[in-house]
Specification:
Strand order of the largest sheet: 10-13-14-9-8-15-16
Low-confidence stretches: 2-6
CATH class of the largest domain: Alpha Beta
Oligomer: single chain
Radius of gyration: 25 Å
Number of strands: 18
Largest sheet: 7 strands, mixed
Shape: globular
Mean pLDDT: 96
C-alpha cells in the first residue's frame, strides 16, 4: 500500500491556517494547554490503533518497540510542554548597559505563526508529535506532511488530527514526492524537516525562495568508539540495543564501530551471543522488526552483496536464514574489512548492518571521525574521564551518549539536532519552544533618561561624555 499524490490545494489549506493565526496571533496559555491536551488525548485513546497501523506499514514491527520508541516519548514531550509551557512563554528579564539605566529590557517569546512539519517514515508518530507539541506550546498553527511510505499510519493520523483539531489549528496532509515538493515551497514561518541529507538539501532550497527558516534533522554515519580496555560485553550489549531496535532504521543508530584490532574477534563472538539472547527466534522472531518496504530492503541487500563482493567478511548474528525477501526481513550482520568505496562505508546504512573498523588508539579514532562529515550522533565507550572529555572537545556531533547508545535523544532537557551535513537547529523541550518562537527583544526607555545629550547637533558635552564612555 502506498499513498498516491492527493489532489489537494495546499495553498488553500495554508491560507486557512494563516488566517486563523492572524485572527489569534498570541494564544494565551489556556488555549495552548487545551490544544496540547487534545494531542495527549489522541495518543492515549488511540494507542492500539496507532501501534497496529505502524506494524502493518512495516510488515511487522513489535508493538513494544512502537510503545517504547514512539508512544512513550511522544507522551513525554506533550506532558513536558504542559508542565513547563506556561513558564516558557513568560517574558524573560534581560539586562541593559550601564549607560542606559534606568531603562529596562526583556525578551518576549512570540508565536511565529504557521509552522510546517515534514515527517519521515522510520518513526512516523514520534517525529510528528514531537515537533507538533513544540509548535502548539509556542502558540503556533501547524501543517504536517506525513510520509507516503507509512500509508496506514499517515491516513490514521490525518483522521485523528482532523477529529481533534479545527482545520485552522492543525492540518495533516498525505501524498507522495509531488505533494512534499509543494509543501516545502509554502511560505511557512518555520519549516522543520526530518529525513535524509539529500532530501534535506532540496527542502532547504525550496524554503530559501521564501526565506523560510528551517530546522533540518538529517542523519549521517554515526560512529561508535570502544576505547582500549573497556568491558566488551557491556559495549556490545548497548551497541546492539541501539542497532537492533527498529532493525537499525533509526537516524541516530550506531552506523559503524571503531575498536581495537585485538577486540574484533571477541566482539563478533559476544555480538552473536547477545543477538541470539535478544532475538531468540532469529529472523522469524516477531520481536524483530522488518525493513519498511521493498525499496529499502533491496538497498540494504545490494549494499551487503556489494561489500561481500569487495572482499568484506560478513557475519550474520542470527543462526538460520539471514534473509526473507518476501517479508523484507534481514538479519543483523557484522562486516569486517569493508572497503571505503562501498555503499556501506560511504552512506548512512539505516538498517541492521554494522561494519567493524580496527582502530588502536583514541587519537586514531578521533582522526577517523574528523576526516568524515560531521555525524548526527557519536557514541563513546570509555571509563577514562580525561580521554572522554578530550574526545568531546576534539570532535563534532549532533549529540553524544557516553557508555550507551540512543539515550541522549530521550533527555528533553537536552537539545536534539545535527551539525553541518547532519542538520541544523534544535528542538525537544524548551529548545523546541524557543526554536518555534520569535524571541522578541524589547527595550523600554525610562521616563527620565539622559539620551537627549546625544541628539544632534552634537555638543562639546556629548563629545566629552563619549570619550569618557570609551575609556571606562
Amino acid at each position: 500500500m502506498k499513498i498516491q499524490d492527493a489532489p489537494i490545494d495546499l495553498h488553500a489549506r495554508f491560507a486557512q491556517v494563516r488566517a486563523a493565526a492572524a485572527a489569534a496571533p498570541f494564544p494565551d496559555w489556556a488555549q495552548r494547554a487545551d490544544a496540547l491536551r487534545r494531542l495527549q488525548g489522541l495518543l492515549v485513546a488511540h494507542e492500539a490503533e496507532i501501534t497496529q497501523a505502524i506494524d502493518a506499514d512495516f510488515g511487522g514491527r513489535p508493538a513494544i518497540e512502537t510503545e517504547l520508541a514512539e508512544v512513550w516519548p511522544s507522551l513525554e514531550e506533550v506532558k513536558g510542554a504542559l508542565r513547563h509551557g506556561r513558564r516558557w512563554m513568560k517574558p524573560r528579564r534581560a539586562g541593559v548597559g550601564q549607560w542606559f539605566l534606568p531603562a529596562s529590557a526583556q525578551v518576549i517569546p512570540q508565536p511565529l505563526g504557521v509552522v510546517g512539519i515534514i515527517v519521515p517514515w522510520n518513526y512516523p508518530l514520534y517525529l510528528a508529535v514531537g515537533p507538533l507539541a513544540a509548535a502548539l506550546a509556542a502558540g503556533n498553527r501547524a501543517m504536517v506532511k506525513m510520509s507516503e511510505f507509512t500509508p496506514r499510519f499517515s491516513a490514521l493520523f490525518q483522521r485523528l488530527c482532523a477529529e481533534a483539531f479545527p482545520a485552522g489549528e492543525v492540518i495533516v496532509v498525505t501524498g507522495g514526492p509531488e505533494v512534499a515538493a509543494q509543501f516545502s515551497a509554502l511560505p511557512f514561518d518555520h519549516l522543520l524537516f526530518t529525513g535524509s541529507t539529500p532530501v534535506g538539501r532540496r527542502v532547504m532550497a525550496a524554503a530559501a525562495a521564501n526565506l523560510t527558516p528551517v530546522t533540518l534533522e538529517l542523519g549521517g554515519k554515526s560512529p561508535t568508539v570502544i576505547a582500549p580496555g573497556y568491558p566488551l560485553a557491556h559495549a556490545v550489549q548497548r551497541i546492539l540495543a541501539g542497532k537492533l531496535i527498529n532493525a537499525g532504521q533509526t537516524c541516530i543508530a550506531p552506523d559503524y564501530v571503531l575498536l581495537p584490532r585485538a577486540d574484533i574477534e571477541p566482539f563478533i563472538a559476544e555480538a552473536r551471543a547477545q543477538a541470539q539472547r535478544m532475538v531468540p527466534g532469529g529472523l522469524g522472531d516477531p520481536g524483530f522488526c522488518s525493513i519498511v518496504n521493498d525499496r529499502q530492503y533491496r538497498r540494504l541487500a545490494d549494499a551487503l552483496d556489494e561489500a561481500a563482493g569487495a572482499g568484506a567478511r560478513c557475519v550474520p548474528l542470527f543462526d538460520g536464514p539471514a534473509r526473507d525477501d518476501t517479508r523484507h526481513r534481514l538479519a543483523p550482520h557484522l562486516l569486517i574489512g569493508t572497503p571505503d568505496d562501498t555503499a556501506l562505508m560511504r552512506d548512512e546504512i539505516f538498517g541492521p548492518l554494522l561494519p567493524l573498523v580496527p582502530c588502536d588508539s583514541a587519537d586514531e579514532a578521533i582522526a577517523h571521525i574528523n576526516a568524515r562529515p560531521r555525524p548526527l550522533a557519536l557514541y563513546w565507550f570509555d571509563h577514562d574521564r580525561a580521554r572522554v572529555d578530550d574526545a568531546l572537545r576534539r570532535t563534532h556531533a549532533g549529540g553524544v551518549s557516553v557508555n550507551d547508545t540512543l539515550l541522549h535523544i530521550a533527555q528533553h532537557s537536552l537539545p536534539f539536532g545535527g551539525v553541518g551535513p547532519s542538520g541544523m537547529g534544535h528542538y525537544h523541550g524548551q529548545w523546541g519552544f524557543d526554536t518555534l518562537s520569535k524571541l522578541k527583544p524589547v527595550f523600554r526607555q525610562a521616563r527620565l533618561n539622559g539620551m537627549a545629550i546625544f541628539l544632534p547637533p552634537y555638543s562639546a558635552m556629548a563629545r566629552r561624555m563619549l570619550g569618557w564612555m570609551k575609556r571606562l
